[in-house]
Design brief:
This protein has 17 helices and seven strands. It is mainly alpha-helical and 813 residues long. It is flat. About 2% of the residues have low confidence.
């Protein structure tokens, strides 16, 4: 039903969304078929409205297009009139700028002539800068030549020319002589560096031998240290092995005592818990004893007060009846309508409510007394158990003994736990001793090999050192001597490069000067300065060209506009007013937008309805099998509950299950019922409904063996009802005992009912109870029948009085 309700809620949700989209109320109590038909009607109505909206949107669209056409025609005329006015204004501006335009055009013509000379001017300036840069480099390199260089072998003259005249003929001749001298010195330095480089592998080998000798010395020292460490470890290992053997023997002894010490700890823990809890238990017992005495006194006082009130109410009963008498009304006692001498009212009379309140107070206090009595009994049992468990020890002594036992157990357990570790450690010591002997042999051999290798490397080192010292002449190391030689050779190389660059720069300067003079003369300039003044940068030329081109374009555009026939025709027409046409177009577009919005809304509604119709179809299809299952499930639930017309006996499923147990109880009860009824009555289970039953299945009928009739249990007499109920109770006890694995119900109490039996039936019932007693069960009978006093061997008589009840055990007479 819950799953069907979820599907129904899904369908209802779809219908709610359909109603929301269509802006209508959803009809109540729609079935699946009615819901599909309702949605189909809404879809058809929406489709009709959409067709009308499409037609209205087409009409509005046509009107908007016509209004826009009229506005665009008027805007074209207004635009042509504005172009005519703008062309007249721009023509006046161009006439005012004519002189400046002519000057800029002349500058551009001179710059065009100077453009042919500009590369040669740049080449001449670059040559001058190269000469000056070469001169500066030569001066700086001369100052950086290392000390000890062969400076006397060549002489570089000082370049003392000015910036205006970078050439000097005498200097050029001296530079040629210096080039030859520096070239020879550089060649000698390179030869020396080559000879020294050939000895570099010997220098590297010498360093390797030094490092290897140092490494061999360290290795020999480590080997000797390792041998000494092995000696020290051997002595420590021998001492440790002696200690381990002593500890191993002690741990094995402790392992044998662990179990006995653990039992001693458990006994000590129980004694300590009992000794600690005994004072509190005694205190609780004493408090409960005092509370029980107080509760007993309070209950007795409450009972006395109740009895006093009860007696006072009995004594004042006549006055209570007299208060309710009225003239002409019959007396509830004698029936007379006259009341000649009613009892006088007593102000001390007790009301029924007061008596009932006193009785309830007594019962409440009596229950409290019983609860405290039971708690006191439990406390006394607890005190006795704790006193036995404490073994007569006080808490402190018991805790001390427990602590000592635990310490002994912990020590023994720790020692016992170390047996395996000690055994493993002894094995490790033996293995370590064997490994130490093997390690010593290896180290002795390695020490001999290291000494021999060190002797060979020392001899090789002496030979290499002699050869390197002979090459360096004893002045520093080989790398230092090689670095100094390379530095001098590098200085010579840089000086050669500077000399060559100075010679080449001078030649480039002469060539650039000659070409520049020829180009200036051919371009028509008076001199170099005149050509430089006519030159313009690319940006300046571009700006002037753009300015002239823009003014020419503007003039052409102005002429084209003024000569356009459409512009001339529009200029002759009156000024156009666009506002009324714009308003008309805006109104037509608003109507068109409204029609388009209405059409889109209906289209969206139609598409949403199509989707929801599909969703509704899917929801109804998913719900259909579940609704069929729900019908079956409801019929099955009704059948199990006994409310279905298919259940002829109106029997619940639970009653059907219990009927099997009831048949077992009836079968067990009939064994004793036949004996109690002298073979007359037996019980039968029936599925028919009894009197007052709304459901069938658990009914009983009584079969009368004397008349062969089936009777309703309600037709039995009081005595017959009693022993029939007793037989059912005994049968139920037998079935419960069987279901509990044979566990016996050893005590049975029968309260009253014996007074309804005739003497013969009483004898038969008592015979059955005697059989139960002889089988080991205890049977208790609560009855006022005097004949049972001779049949019951052990009796307890309850005598009641105003002050309370008393018990008197007696023997059977």
């Amino acid at each position: 039903a819950a799953r069907s309700a979820r599907h129904a809620a899904r369908v209802a949700g779809v219908l709610e969304r359909v109603a929301e989209i269509c802006r209508c109320e959803r009809p109540e109590h729609l079935g699946p078929e009615e819901a599909a038909a309702w949605v189909g009607d809404l879809r058809r109505d929406t489709a009709d409205r959409l067709a009308e909206a499409v037609e209205a949107r087409g009409i509005a669209d046509l009107a908007a297009k016509e209004a826009r056409t009229r506005l665009e025609e008027a805007q074209d005329i207004a635009r042509l009139q504005a172009r005519h006015r703008e062309a007249l204004r721009r023509d006046g501006e161009l006439r005012a700028l004519a002189d400046g335009t002519a000057r800029e055009r002349h500058r551009l013509e001179r710059a065009t002539l100077a453009a042919a000379v500009a590369p040669l001017l740049d080449l001449h300036d670059a040559a001058v800068r190269r000469v000056r840069r070469a001169r500066q480099q030569l001066d700086s390199v001369r100052a950086c030549v290392p000390a000890g260089a062969d400076v006397d072998a060549w002489a570089v003259p000082t370049d003392g020319v000015s910036d205006d005249d970078p050439l000097d003929t005498a200097l050029d001749t001296a530079l040629d002589t210096a080039l030859d001298a520096v070239t020879g010195a550089a060649r000698r330095c390179h030869d020396e560096a080559t000879r020294l480089e050939a000895l570099l592998p010997d220098e590297a080998r010498l360093h390797e031998i030094d490092a290897e000798l140092e490494r061999l010395e360290q290795q020999e020292a480590q080997t000797w240290s390792e041998l000494q460490r092995l000696d020290v470890e051997g002595e420590a290992r021998n001492a440790e092995e002696r200690l381990l053997r002593e500890a191993h023997a002690a741990a094995r002894s402790c392992h044998a005592r662990v179990d006995s010490l653990r039992e001693r700890v458990q006994h000590a823990e129980r004694a300590a818990r009992a000794a600690v809890g005994l004072p509190d238990a005694r205190h609780r017992r004493d408090e409960l004893a005092v509370a029980k005495e107080q509760a007993a006194d309070a209950a007795q006082h409450a009972r006395d007060a109740w009895l006093d009130l009860r007696q006072a109410r009995i004594d004042g009963m006549a006055a209570e009846l007299a208060r309710d008498l009225t003239d002409g009304a019959p007396c509830p006692v004698c029936g007379s309508a006259e009341h000649p001498a009613p009892a006088p009212a007593d102000h001390a009379s007790v009301s029924p409510d007061a008596e009932e309140e006193a009785e309830r107070s007594w019962h409440r206090l009596e229950r409290r007394r019983q609860e405290l009595t039971e708690a006191l009994t439990a406390a006394e049992r607890e005190v006795a158990a704790l006193a036995t468990g404490s073994q007569g020890l006080d808490p402190q002594t018991a805790e001390t003994r427990l602590g000592q036992s635990r310490e002994q157990l912990d020590a023994a357990q720790r020692s016992a736990a170390e047996v395996g570790a000690l055994t493993a450690r002894l094995d490790e010591c033996a293995e370590a001793a064997r490994e130490a002997v093997e390690r010593r042999q290896v180290l002795e051999g390695e020490r001999s090999r290291v000494a021999e290798r060190a002797r060979l490397r020392a001899h090789e080192r002496a030979e290499l050192r002699e050869r390197i010292d002979a090459a360096t002449g004893g002045e520093g190391t080989l790398p230092e001597r090689l670095d100094r030689t390379r530095a001098v050779a590098g200085a010579y190389e840089r000086l050669l490069e500077c000399l060559r660059e100075r010679v080449e720069a001078a030649g480039a300067y002469e060539d650039a000067s000659a070409r520049l003079r020829t180009a200036v003369r051919d371009a028509g300039f008076t001199d170099e300065a005149d050509a430089r003044s006519a030159c313009l940068s690319p940006t300046e030329r571009s700006n002037i060209e753009a300015l002239l081109r823009a003014r020419d374009d503007q003039a052409a555009q102005v002429r084209a506009v003024l000569e356009d026939p459409r512009v001339r025709e529009a200029a002759l027409a009156p000024e156009m007013d666009l506002y009324p046409l714009q308003e008309g177009l805006a109104e037509a577009e608003r109507r068109r937008d409204a029609a388009v919005g209405h059409e889109r809304e209906l289209d969206h509604c139609a598409r949403r309805l199509d989707a929801l119709d599909t969703e509704l179809t899917e929801a109804l299809a998913a719900w259909e099998p579940l609704r069929a299952e729900l019908v079956v499930a409801e019929r099955m639930a009704s059948l199990c509950a006994g409310t279905s017309a298919d259940n002829r006996h109106k029997m619940r499923l639970s009653a059907y299950v219990l009927a099997a147990r009831l048949e077992q109880v009836v079968a067990a009860a009939n064994e004793r019922l036949l004996q109690m009824s002298s073979g007359r009555y037996t019980l039968r289970h029936t599925v028919a409904r009894g009197v007052g039953d709304r459901r069938g299945g658990l009914g009983l009928q009584v079969h009368d063996g004397w008349t062969a009739d089936l009777r309703d249990p309600a037709t039995l007499s009081g005595g017959e009802t009693f022993f029939t109920s007793l037989a059912l109770a005994l049968g139920l006890a037998d079935v419960v005992s069987h279901e509990a694995g044979g566990t016996e119900i050893n005590t049975l109490f029968v309260d009253e009912g014996f007074g309804a039996l005739d003497p013969d039936t009483l004898d038969e019932v008592m015979d059955v109870l005697d059989q139960l007693r002889s089988g080991g069960r205890a049977v208790g009978i609560v009855s006022h029948v005097a004949d049972l006093r001779s049949r019951v061997p052990a009796q307890v008589h309850v005598r009641k009085s105003r002050t309370g009840s008393s018990l008197a055990p007696t023997a059977a007479r």
